[in-house]
Amino acid sequence: MAMLFLGFSAGLPILLIFSSLSLWLREAGVERSAVTFFSWAALGYSFKFVWAPLVDKLPLPLLTRWLGRRRGWLLLAQIAIALSIVAMALVDPSNETRLTWMALAAVALGFSSATQDVVIDAYRIEAVESRIQGMMSASYIAGYRIGMIVAGAGALFLASGFGSTMASYSYQAWQWSYLIMALVMLVGMTTTLLISEPGAPNKTDKIAASYPYPTRDYLQLLLLFAFSVTAFVLVFFYSGALAGVVKQQLGNPLGLVNLLAFVIESLRLILAIFAAYSVARWGLALGVSNKDMVEMSYVAPVKDFFGQHGMKTALLLLALIGCYRMSDIVLGIISNVFYQDMSFSKQEIAWAVKTFGVMMAVLGGFLGGLLSMRYGVMRILFIGAVLSALTNLLFIALASAGHDLTLLYLVISADNLSAGLASAAFVAFLSSLTNVSFTAMQYALFSSLMTLLPKFLGGYSGTFVATMGYSNFFILTTLLGLPVLVLIVLAKKHLALEAR
Fold it and tell me: Which pTM does this prediction carry?
């Protein structure tokens, strides 16, 4: 029951950044390409491994002693989520001068929601023995999907009920919808206060064992992290002007302007990551933080993974993790804009996509879990990848038919059923790779890598559609799933050899 409600708390914020926000922005008159760029606000989910060790190792004043290691961080993350949703509600995106504030609030929501995910994943793995993990995962996924229904269909029904439409935009309607979503986060907060801390019954001894370093070392680690994040933000922000000049100078050689823009933005991201890494290295050299503590927090979990599987197999597994969800995530980011462009109303989208579709995903999740137990995770992982890629082609028929409600339900059924099946097998696959000695860091690293490249590519989905049209875009997302099939076959072979 606890995982059901915690799953609900985890599933609520994500659609308030993705689909619900994209519909709000479109009604407010924001351009399609700018709407999909807002998906980058959720990149916190893809970089959560960076601060996962802080969540694992850093005690919180008052909260840790009051609630314990996991619940203290969980309550803090949930409060931050609610405040971020309120901040988004206070911004009217129809005012272009305030779009930056909306983006900052969305980034804060992505950051705090990703932090909650780190804690819940660690709690789920630590709270019960391995034989019950399947039940815990199923309850969590069911709650997560229910949270998505509330944040997806619920937010759309509220905004529509309060009087906002494409023809007659109402900021107050969306504002009240998001304020109500912030209030719904009380479900997660209440659950956190009622559940028990995993581990030893003596909370004082448990806390002391979890935080063996003096307070000063934890503060220094937090300071080093702050310096690195500041370097990342400054380099990425100030390199934007230079990137704009380079794009202007290059023009559109051979009609590859979108590809060049993607390469330039990728280089900006790599440069910012390198700057953050360099600051961290310099900080350690200058004694800003305890080297042993950083080694245990960041290096040891990675060494453990590569030591367990070997360099070649480990890199293959990481490539599979990074590419597995690419096909459906890239399409999913622009899907709600597509439904609007096909003249479906918010009520039709809410019922078909956010309610019926999520129920089909839940069904697919349970089906994927049962089939994984019966036939093995890798086999269902392969089948899920095939179905997820092929169902993208059904969107071509919907693009040609336009406003066809029957076809919409058919496409949503196939797409969500296959996505649920693939996700269940993938969660089981990731959990099997995690060492319980490094729960938070390793699982955060895997789940971060899972969404990093897909979400980065998805930010350009609006630009791709504007250039090539919806039908060609859906073909492209299908092709993105083909390399995954090769990676699954190779990974299965290497893991089988490893087991011998």
Answer: 0.70
